[in-house]
């Protein structure tokens, strides 16, 4: 029986026959020492398996690759004696119990990859993704599991995790518990001297754990997080948990997030936190990962829970899991009051529709296939990837934007995607053990909104042709306008720029400066750069016999020539070649309000952009 629901009181004072003791004596070397104690054994062998991936991040990461010094014992504690082990496959260890009722397995894990989905340990903190630390015991994943943290509590006083406290921390360590392995795998731990604030909202406790070396206004940040909780729980009529932990990690170059049932991990570059006007990226990310506690952790495609931790778990429905969430994240940021109506429409224009138009791959693969192949496409993107598939986040988000506008328009403003969400939530509560199929999802949306969407939505998800923007957006008094002129140069108030140069026309290459060279990193299919014969990793040497070494030089020169062709000398595989590139003015779509909208169009737009539920 698959269940990810846990309340703290359920673990209080429990006993467990599977316990992970985690020690940090070698944290400076990025090592976690693990001791798994398995009791209650009645079989000749115990098989312990290290997961190969973490739910929510669709990539095989083969965590066993970072594991070492594996040893096993039969019996426990002082009376244990070494026993034999063998590997059944790359991640499955067979331990001989030989009639003993308990075994202990010891190993170290190298944890030095700093992302929201991998463990990171050093002398100052530990972030533990337990899928990369804790092997599960085959056949026993449904029982209570304990995690005993044996760290120096004076150096690392803060422990933030959705795992529940089993008893008050004592000299033995800090004992946490999960009702089953799925919950353990879904509950990362941040351990260190980070700042933790709390608030109560929707009858539940919320912890905001901010791990950073930078000065962060945690009071302000906590107030914003509380606003997010208020707005999102209002849609679903409450919080389906007793406690929720927001882990926020701010370090240079950080980004991305990962959702869990009672927590989320949100990574951000500290530069976004020094100026509150720049924090919208983090706030939108927090809206996104928090919304996932409903959409994907609970409301979910059938294939995403229960999980097989050893291999790819394929689903065509990441358009629901991530597309719907990408549509709602900026919408929630707007409903929270973080952005104005004008700013939200600009975001839709630039970050959603505009970005999708810059992806040639939207014509090469459907959103469903992009989801199914996420393991090899989005998560292992080749430099040519932008030409081969659209992200199911990006195109899925645009599809739900159009779907919401369509539902509002065709129900005369009576229904919206909010109603479909609530219906999906009811369906989850009726049977939390099973996810949804695509057909069920279509049916639920139609039932909740009384609008026929099945054929349309299927076409959008399975097709590669341009979406019907103008037809749908007209319902809410909006339209796409194509700007095909490079914008005029900025004039900086009264001051004139040094040279009156417009923005560069479209070439279709992206360039990177690398060791004093200018290297092509990508080439859009069908673009001027592709037609001129440039390839990825070719080096630009000169344009019209002028040596170029910076992207600014290239942009400036091509801009000054507008759409005139330029002769380029480039280098590939040890030889020079010459070709001519003819940059063009590209049509860039922009969402605009149509002139003289009808009262109905205005009414529908107001309905769509209503802040109150
Ligand atoms: Zn997401």
Would you give an account of this structure?
The protein is of the alpha+beta class and 613 residues long. It folds into 4 domains: 8-193, Immunoglobulin-like (Sandwich), CATH 2.60.40; 194-293, Neutral Protease Domain 2 (Neutral Protease, domain 2), CATH 1.10.390.10; 301-477 and 602-613, Orthogonal Bundle (Neutral Protease, domain 2), CATH 1.10.390; 509-581, Pdz3 Domain (Roll). The protein has 15 helices and 29 strands. An 8-stranded mixed sheet has the order 5-4-8-2-1-12-15-14. Strands 23, 24, 25, 26, 27 and 28 form a 6-stranded antiparallel sheet that branches. The longest helix is centred in the middle third of the chain and has 19 residues, at 218-236. The protein is globular and about 85 Å long. The protein starts with 17 loop residues before the first strand and ends in a 5-residue tail after the last helix. 43% of the residues are buried. Bound molecules: zinc ion (ZN). Residues 259, 288, 292, 322, 325 line the site of zinc ion.
Task: Note the overall shape.
Answer: globular
Largest sheet: 8 strands, mixed
Tally of structural domains: 4
Distance between the termini: 35 Å
Helix content: 25-40%
Structural class: alpha+beta
What CATH calls the topology of the largest domain is: Neutral Protease, domain 2
What is the CATH superfamily of the largest domain?
Neutral Protease Domain 2
Small-molecule binders here are: zinc ion
Please count the beta strands (DSSP E, at least 2 residues each).
29
Spans where pLDDT lies below 50 across 5 or more residues: none
Specify Rg, calculated over alpha carbons.
27 Å
